[in-house]
Amino acid sequence: MSDDSHTDTQSHCCGCADQSAAGPCGPDDLTSIRGRIAQAVRDVRERTPLAQSFTNFVTINLVANAQLAAGGTAAMSFLPDDVIDTASISGADYINVGTLLPFYKDALPQIARAFRKSGHKWVLDPVAAGIGKTRTEILRSFRAAPPTIVRGNASEIIALATMWGLISPDGTSRPAGVESVDDVDAAVEPAKTLATFLAQSAPDARAAVAVSGKVDLVTDGERVYRLPGGSAMMTKITGAGCSLGGVTATYLAVAEPLIAALAASLLFNRAGEIAETKSDGPGTFQAHFLDALWNLAPEQVAGSAIDLR
Amino acid sequence: MSDDSHTDTQSHCCGCADQSAAGPCGPDDLTSIRGRIAQAVRDVRERTPLAQSFTNFVTINLVANAQLAAGGTAAMSFLPDDVIDTASISGADYINVGTLLPFYKDALPQIARAFRKSGHKWVLDPVAAGIGKTRTEILRSFRAAPPTIVRGNASEIIALATMWGLISPDGTSRPAGVESVDDVDAAVEPAKTLATFLAQSAPDARAAVAVSGKVDLVTDGERVYRLPGGSAMMTKITGAGCSLGGVTATYLAVAEPLIAALAASLLFNRAGEIAETKSDGPGTFQAHFLDALWNLAPEQVAGSAIDLR
Amino acid sequence: MSDDSHTDTQSHCCGCADQSAAGPCGPDDLTSIRGRIAQAVRDVRERTPLAQSFTNFVTINLVANAQLAAGGTAAMSFLPDDVIDTASISGADYINVGTLLPFYKDALPQIARAFRKSGHKWVLDPVAAGIGKTRTEILRSFRAAPPTIVRGNASEIIALATMWGLISPDGTSRPAGVESVDDVDAAVEPAKTLATFLAQSAPDARAAVAVSGKVDLVTDGERVYRLPGGSAMMTKITGAGCSLGGVTATYLAVAEPLIAALAASLLFNRAGEIAETKSDGPGTFQAHFLDALWNLAPEQVAGSAIDLR
What we know:
Chain A is α/β, with parallel strands linked by helices. Chain A has one domain (23-308): UDP-N-acetylmuramoyl-L-alanine:D-glutamate ligase (3-Layer(aba) Sandwich), CATH 3.40.1190. In chain A, 45% of the residues lie in helices and 12% in strands. Chain A is built from 11 helices and 9 strands. Chain A has helices spanning 30-47, 60-70, 80-87, 104-118, 133-141, 154-163, 188-201, 240-252, 257-278, 282-295, 298-302; strands at 50-54, 73-76, 92-96, 122-125, 149-153, 208-212, 216-219, 224-227, 307-308. In chain A, strands 2-1-3-4-5-6-7-8-9 form a 9-stranded mixed sheet, with helices on both faces. In chain A, strand 7 and strand 8 (224-227) form a beta hairpin. In chain A, helix 2 crosses helix 8 and helix 6 (154-163) crosses helix 7 (188-201). Chain B binds chain C through residues 56-59, 61-62, 98-102, 128, 131-135, 175, 177-179, 235-239, 279-284, 286-287, and chain C through 50, 57, 60-61, 64-65, 68-69, 73-79, 81-82, 85-86, 89, 101, 103, 286-295.
């Protein structure tokens, strides 16, 4: 155990564990961040935390398998009584608004309110934000009972921040669909604004937003971390983003939001790179990707390139 | 680009691009067909068209992964507002009536009517046609708002054509189940009759029916194309048929119905053969099958045996 | 064909086909058991029986693929009219109470009553027994229309037996979740009591309970069979337990309950061991596991260690 324990409750300037290091943040602060990322990777493997998911039917199997491969355990539920009961033994939850069914319109707001009441941490994946009246109603309702982390592509992050009135619609962003039509760079300010809003709502004032793209972006509302790497093949299997959201919840069960979001994104990028070298196409890629999630050393994950600016 | 472009709107005798070649169709016309098949395979990889699916929960992941491996993109939806919104950015849709839920009884007819109104192209997979009162009601309702392509096994094609009053029940066909109990040959006339009916309902008078079996059969209502090959292992993984339906919708986003149905069936047969040689059982077969969908050259797909009679 | 045919309707002491062998049961009786296990494995491959499933959305694809890899065929349904229609052509059914939707509260009791009325055999997987009001109501309702086999982890078996009033709550067992918190040994008496209750309700007085754990346990209410082996990697993919339940239904379509439960558990343990030696992590493990289900010889399955006490 190091001083960088996930139970650290100090100021999160640059995620620095040492208060005296607060002030202008620079690349040196990354040493602390990296230590806490490695610890989160280790903690999940040692404690096998349960992270429950309410997620879409397309990729639900990969979400569970990725959580298991990262070292956690998985449970998927849709009925509010089931979800709320299971949340009492779950370290964090993951909610993904793909493949909506009619009863979700009432169930999801009810579940979010229950999480807010109990202070339960959760990750939101606003899949296809902007498409469909029902999805818009559900996503709008979360403004009053917000998640701890939002993970999405650039278009989804911009659509959610716009929907919640945190940024003005600039007329340049189109409905998100499930593939991003916006660049990660276009989402920097919306992501920071969204993370700040989430932190203001969080019991411990900590939150994060992760934007997936060619270069992933993670922010706690103050600093922006860019994570290069990964593999283009991750866009050729369905569910790379969803399973990243699920594994983010797994890490959130043992670490603070910024560290959880960074650890999950780094783990996925490294695993994608390894799987690409071992596979001949998307079918074998997925198998090797899960293997790599299982096999990567905490230091390999934490030692990856992080571009802080 | 060749004259065999998918945007060609000429007569579809044998799928010939050249009107002067109309008249008695023969094997020579296959040259034109093959060119357009290769073009469809290329177009999907270059344009990555979105094909949306409303499909069963068993194989929904494989449908999406097969569409991605063929070069397209995927989105799955079930709520009418979600499906109809997404259809506006989707090149074609795929509807599969497996694993019905109660609300589908109203949702699916509503969706089919919306597609008809907007002229949106779609592929129907009448899984288990003949089983269950609800499925029968849903499939019957599609007669008034028919798909562009129907893809199924012989029993399903016969059951659907009978249900729509296009052929007389001969008393020899049993309810379809999910495994065909009828031979592809028994489905030749029902498939032609069904395709003719679909073409009469289509805005551009083009439609197709694909029958999966040991030898696949594709027809536009006039000519019947038999596609030998494939692998018996395709019946030992769940969803080979469903994912073929999904990939047919992917090709339908860039090509006319006959070419889309031929291209998808040929791609699947070739991929099945390659995967069989590389695998030791159904688990590794599925991974290698997706790899082969990704790796096959357009000329390999288009150059396959097509038996025209 | 041997005397140990699955159509044998004699006394099931130790599963002995020979009445004269009844009395104190010992390891020698295992010879008969093994013969019938091998026969069940062969019969499934020769007859490709359909076993229908009503199962959770997380692992529904693996359940179907495992049933196909074992040699059977699969169909998944949720609407009562669909399930009851398909049951007429299905050798046995599998019901798994994970990922509940609202309409299941009425649908599942209705389906169980229909199975009871028609004498249709089915396997229950009481996933997460004890969690959620709706699940508890559904599982309680099955007491009046019980399954032929129950398969679960130790916590789920104890929770179900307690819920049905067959054993007194001892206050030591916690709600099951999807991961067992109880040891298989703690479930021996609850499993025997449960199996005895099931047998009393069965048309032919035969039933079984299978408890999955480090050492699996199968009982017909009289004798307890312990099955060592398997692979720890089976807990690192989602759905090993669910797919075991599905394959148990596949075997139940051709064999009596005790033999079906033993054959499925032994097949899974042997396949897990083979897959572990061939894989580098959970992704490749799953592919090799399905391959092994497909490739294992009946004698390899039946010749495995069985600890009778």
